[in-house]
Amino acid sequence: MPKKKSQKNPPSRKVTVGHSKKRSEFFLPLAGIVLMSFVGMGYFYNSSQPEKQAVLAQAVVEETPKPVFRGIGEIPVLTARGVYAFDVDSGVELFSKNAEDPLLPASTTKIATALVAMETYKPGDVLTVSGTNNVFGQKMGLYTGERISAEALIYGTLIHSANDAATALAASYPGGRGEFINAMNQLASDWGLSKTHFTNPVGFDEYLHFSTARDLAMLARLAMEEPKFAQIVGLQSAVVTSFDGRTVHRLTNTNQLLGSVPGVVGIKTGHTITSGESLVTRTDRDGHKVLIALVGSTNRFGETRALIDWIFASYVWEKEEISQK
């Protein structure tokens, strides 16, 4: 039986990306939805004699299918310092290892970076690249002064994990890089990610830049509810250009499980020498969505694959019907 440190469900509130009530044009407008529920069948039988009056009613309540542990197979041996897996729809915890320990999130940070950018910029906004001269690590090849759409930079941030793209998004933010980071922290606070704090938009290892496996899983859950975000992180590759079309940037997704493990639909990788390898992944199989956050591993892809296989072999989703009379 996997270790279950808690049975806390993810926040159930409706997702609003970022820290304000403003909705970006990146996201599809939400249509009004009226949910009508007809619960069972009931009838009232009335008699002229008060003592024979009866009220007969019956309801059948169908709950969201919940995973039930069946204990098939051995739990994978994981080198990751922190791991958290849960069923997205029910919120049931599936696996936990040091899930509340603050760790270095590396480029999984860019989940928050992209969300703040999506709230701030419109798809057609054209930004002038700046602040990228001293950026190291993974890059998409931006040059100072290049004019490129905010949308292209978000693609680069999420697909290619481009440090220069994340930096350019933050540099163009109203109030500058510092205000962008404040917005990232406000986002974390608004979503109840109490053990997450950012000091940069890239994921560089810095003092007071940290998160937990559980917080990253919750962040990913909310982010994946946004259609545009989910679409981007599900792409294996993309090509974007500068505003004038002269500079071409070819992007390759850093998530090697996309296209190789059935059901994997996203979302974000991370790696530094100090932090180790990290991977946040959502897998959809047979109508069930499982999110896994794995932080500080020596083999993020192999361990995530093993955990995915173990979860779907060891749990059965059951819908409980409760009759009320």
TrEMBL record:
GO terms for molecular function: serine-type D-Ala-D-Ala carboxypeptidase activity. The keyword Disulfide bond does not apply. Residues 78-295 form the Peptidase S11 D-alanyl-D-alanine carboxypeptidase A N-terminal domain. InterPro entries: Beta-lactam/transpept-like, Peptidase_S11, Peptidase_S11_N. Substrate binds at K268. It comes from the Bacteria. The keyword ATP-binding does not apply. Keywords: Cell shape, Cell wall biogenesis/degradation, Hydrolase, Membrane, Peptidoglycan synthesis, Signal, Transmembrane, Transmembrane helix. The active site is at S107 (acyl-ester intermediate), K110 (proton acceptor), S161. One of its GO terms (biological process) is cell wall organization. The chain crosses the membrane at residues 26-45. Belongs to the peptidase S11 family. This is Peptidase S11 D-alanyl-D-alanine carboxypeptidase A N-terminal domain-containing protein. It comes from Candidatus Blackburnbacteria bacterium RIFCSPHIGHO2_12_FULL_41_13b.
